[in-house]
Amino acid sequence: MNSASRPSADVADVAVIGAGIAGLAACVFLRQRGLSVVCLDAHRYPHHKVGESLDWSSPGLLRRLGIDVKHLIADGIATYKKNIVVYETGKPEWRLTPPAQIGWRPLRFETVTLHVDRAALDERVFEHARALGAEFIWERVTGVDAVGERVNGCVTATGRRVRARWYIDATGTARGFSRAMNIPSVEYGRPKVCLWTYFDGPPLHEGTAFFLDKPRRLFELGLGHPDFAHTNERRLRPSRRARARAATARRFGSEDVRRIRLDARSAHG
Ligand SMILES: Cc1cc2nc3c(=O)[nH]c(=O)nc-3n(C[C@H](O)[C@H](O)[C@H](O)COP(=O)(O)OP(=O)(O)OC[C@H]3O[C@@H](n4cnc5c(N)ncnc54)[C@H](O)[C@@H]3O)c2cc1C
Question: Fewest CB within 10 angstroms: 110, 181, 195, 225, which?
C-alpha cells in the first residue's frame, strides 16, 4: 500500500490502539512522516482524563507535536507552572524552582511548565491528529489476531477487522496487546489506589502547592528542600557511566554513538 495515500480505515501502515495522549502523539508523529494511520479507542472524544500537572519535558514535547504552548495559555487550556510551594503545618512555607540541571544536556528541559485542562489538551491533540489525516475508529479492540510474535490484525467489539503493517499498543494500563500476547509486565511495589477531586479556591501562585501535615524526609529529598541541597546536588550529578557516554558523544557526535550501539546489538543477533 502506498504510504502517502489515505488509509481505507481498516488497512493502514500503522494501527494505533488507544487514543490517549500517547496514542495521539504517535498518530501526529506518524502522519508528519507521511504514514497512513488508523487509531482505535473504545471512547469517542471528548473524554475525561486525569493528569493536569505536566512535567518539565512537556512544553518541548508539545512543541514537537505542533502544539503551541502560548496558544494553550491564550485559549485558557493551560496556565504556567513556575514553581512549587510546600506548606508544612507549623513551619514557614518553602519554595523552589526546578534545578538548573534539567536544562542541561541530555535533558534540555524547560524550567517552566504547565498546568492543563487535560480533557481540553487531549482534545486539542486529537483535533490536530485528525487534521493531519489520522483516521479514528471508536470501537474497543477485543481480539488480537497473532501467530507467534507476528500480529496479523486486530478485531473490534463489533467484529471489525483492522490490519496494518505495524501496530502500536497505546492502551495505557489496560496493556491490551501485552495481555493478549502474554508479555509479562513489571510490577513496581504494591498495587496503588489513587483518589482525586477538585476544589474551587483562589489561585495561590503560578505553580504547584503541597500541603503536609508532618515532615516527610523522602518528599523533601525528592523536591530539593534547601536543608538537603547538598544531598540533592549529589543525586543530580550524572553517573560515571553517563559522563563517559557524554564524553564519547562529544568526541564522535551522538549519531555515531547510536550507530555504534545498534551495530553492537545487531552483531549479537
Ligand atoms: C490519579 C492520577 C493522577 C495523575 N496525575 C498526573 C499528573 O498530574 N500529570 C501527568 O502528567 N500525569 C498524571 N497522571 C498520569 C496520566 O493520566 C497518564 O500517564 C496518561 O494519561 C497516560 O496516557 P496514555 O495515552 O498512555 O494512556 P491513557 O490516557 O490511559 O489512554 C489509553 C487509551 O486506550 C484506550 N483503550 C484501552 N483499552 C482499549 C482497547 N482494548 N481498545 C481500544 N481502546 C482501548 C482507553 O479508552 C484510553 O483512551 C495521573 C494518573 C492518575 C491515575
Answer: 195
pLDDT per residue as tens digits for the range 14-49? 999 999 999 999 999 999 999 999 999 999 998 888
- What residue ranges line ligand 1, CB within 6 angstroms? 17-23, 40-43, 49-54, 140-141, 170-172, 174, 176, 194, 196
Whether 65 is in a domain gets the answer no
Distance between Cα 125 and ligand 1 center (Å): 14
The total number of structural domains that make up the chain: 3
Give the residue numbers spanning the domain of 3.
Answer: 1-52+117-184
- 8 to each of 13, 133, 139, how far by Cα in Å? 11, 12, 16
- pTM for the full predicted model: 0.80
Helix intervals (H) in 1-117: 21-32, 58-65, 69-74
Whether residue 71 contacts residue 127, with contact meaning beta carbons closer than 8 Å, is answered with no
Name the strands in the sheet holding 150-156, side by side, starting at the edge strand that comes first in the sequence: 135-137, 37-40, 11-17, 161-169, 150-156, 141-147
Strands 78-81 and 94-96: unpaired
Could you tell me the pLDDT band of residue 97, with boundaries at 50, 70 and 90? confident
